[in-house]
Amino acid sequence: MIMRDRSVALTPAEMEAGKKVLTEVLRGIDEKNHKRWRRVVNTWFELEEGEITTVDTRHPRSGPFHRFHMALEQAVFNGQERFRDFDRFRDWLKIGASHVEWVPGAKGGIVPLPKSISYAELEEQEMRELHEKMMEFLHGDHAAPYLWKHLDAEEAGTMMSSILSGFEK
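^ that's the sequence the OP posted. Answer follows.
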């Protein structure tokens, strides 16, 4: 949410310079979007004292990075021996990476509820940060022994490292 601060006096030249930066340096990707963008910028400069507007921005996710991350999840899922259902595995991975909302549980305690990683819910930078947290979790002391319960911790760690080695940047 933003508002125009009328306590900042702008000369007509400063007002035009501001509009120029916002409409010529930053542009819509095509004429239709640019026309909409110019309208938005003009609306901002015309806001009255106390008038508020909302700005919603989205930074689209990278398709190649999304596919890279999904391949990582699939590779670990395919190599592990604990989960039969991919969605439950992904929930476990989200919880391990702390991508959760803490909510009251059925018996009064607080439990982690995994958050969505859909394109609509998670922008590119947030997805990259989550990917790093998932990698930290998978490289940590808990994940490998849990996924390969018949192996000792060192063997499970070696198994995890062999899978993750193809996903290190």
